[in-house]
Amino acid sequence: MQKLIAELKEKIIDTLDLIDVTPEDFKENDRLVGGKLGIDSIDILELAMMIDKDYGIKIDNKELGQKVFATLGTLAEYIHKNRKG
Known about the structure:
Elements: H1 2-15, H2 41-55, H3 62-68, H4 72-82
Helix pairs in contact: 1-4
């Protein structure tokens, strides 16, 4: 799971072009939306598309998205449980 979390940190930084952010800047339990990274609802749409493309997992409703994108940890846990292969 720690490998997935490290991978997600890199993917979030790359997907959202977070120039001044390093993987060490955010922790597993930090809030994603409205947290110190400044991620908003538009960013979440980009992340949802990346997760679909890279992991084959669709997050296509608001209620699920709010739960999954609460923290880096909840995102990693959801991907871990639902990834194909």
